[in-house]
């Protein structure tokens, strides 16, 4: 939203009647004008602009017999926006009644030989963004010379070139208010943070299960090979296979490692997330359910069954299992 200097800032006379407001469904866009005075003396200070606006209003009302100054809004080289008729009221500037119903009218306080300043361009983009909020279908930005049937040099070559370059076309910064921009930024940050946290938790859950399953496998293998019976050790490892893995050898009873007494079977605490604590939810996953001595992995065996890398790593039945890799510290 552009801040507009009110009509009182240029000591405007009240309008003498007027054409009323534009019909949004008819509005196609905004037409850009300049004063067309032919002077090369810039109209830059606030007092000079206010005086010029009073002069054009007097000319339009007293000499032309119009209801008010012809334009809706003026923008000067300092980037000030001035309320004239206002964006909702039909202008008298475009050349005929049809054009005045189809287009708004923005006056650039620009004289012959001047280029529009960056401030004038930025404010004009803001004014056009405001115009588009009121008239969503009125997206065209046209120089007066492009629409007036009788021809005109308005708004001069510099403004015409600026229109062609898109210098007056609103960007996302012009369309959004600072509050809306901040709201969008907050939304994106919150969603990104929540997603990062979700990934963090999911990865940690999966990784914990994989590491735990491998470490228990290795401990079982070592325990069994201590008895110099690699075949029985393999049977114990196969006991970790998912429930639906068929055929599954019957596990041999044997002493199982207890993760509570083997701290290296548990994952170290992760690096803390910068904003949200994850240990409260992640901690239960580190308590291994496989610590039951009978190693019956059915009802409570969902954790190893969910760990796809372990299940997928199992060779086909009858093949010799690969030696387990050394546990990573
Ligand atoms: Zn014009």
TrEMBL record:
Query: Its GO biological process terms?
Result: peptidoglycan catabolic process
| Protein name (database record) | N-acetylmuramoyl-L-alanine amidase
Per the record, which residues fall in region Disordered?
A: 242-329
GO MF annotations, alphabetized:
N-acetylmuramoyl-L-alanine amidase activity
- Low complexity composition bias: which ranges? 277-286
Compositional bias (Acidic residues) at which positions? 287-299
Q: Which organism is it from?
A: Kribbella turkmenica
């Amino acid at each position: 939203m552009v801040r507009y200097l009110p009509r009182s800032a240029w000591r405007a006379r009240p309008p003498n009647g007027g054409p009323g407001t534009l019909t949004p469904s008819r509005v196609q866009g905004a037409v850009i004008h300049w004063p067309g005075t032919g002077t090369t003396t810039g109209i830059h200070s606030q007092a000079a602009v206010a005086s010029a606006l009073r002069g054009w209003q007097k000319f339009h009302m007293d000499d032309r017999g119009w209801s008010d100054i012809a334009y809706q809004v003026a923008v000067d080289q300092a980037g000030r926006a001035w309320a004239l008729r206002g964006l909702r009221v039909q202008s008298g500037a475009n050349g005929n009644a049809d054009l005045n119903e189809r287009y708004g009218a923005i006056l650039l306080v620009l004289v012959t030989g001047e280029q529009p300043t960056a401030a004038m361009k930025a404010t004009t983009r803001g004014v056009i963004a405001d115009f588009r909020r009121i008239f969503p279908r009125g997206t065209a930005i046209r120089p007066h010379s492009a629409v007036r049937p009788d021809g005109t040099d308005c708004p001069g070559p510099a403004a015409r070139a600026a229109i062609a370059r898109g210098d007056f076309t609103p960007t996302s910064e012009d369309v959004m208010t600072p509050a809306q921009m901040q709201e969008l930024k907050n939304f994106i940050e919150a969603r990104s943070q929540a997603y990062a946290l979700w990934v963090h938790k999911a990865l940690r859950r999966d990784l914990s299960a994989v590491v735990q399953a491998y470490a228990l496998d290795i401990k079982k293998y070592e325990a069994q090979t201590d008895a110099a019976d690699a075949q029985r050790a393999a049977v114990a490892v196969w006991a970790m296979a998912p429930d639906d893995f068929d055929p599954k050898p019957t596990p041999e009873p044997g002493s199982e490692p207890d993760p509570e007494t083997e701290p290296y079977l548990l994952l170290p605490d992760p690096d803390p997330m910068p904003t949200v604590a994850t240990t409260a939810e992640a901690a239960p996953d580190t308590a291994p359910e496989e610590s039951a001595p009978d190693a019956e992995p059915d009802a409570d065996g969902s954790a190893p069954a969910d760990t796809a890398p372990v299940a997928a790593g199992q060779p086909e039945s009858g093949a010799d299992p690969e030696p387990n890799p050394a546990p990573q510290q």
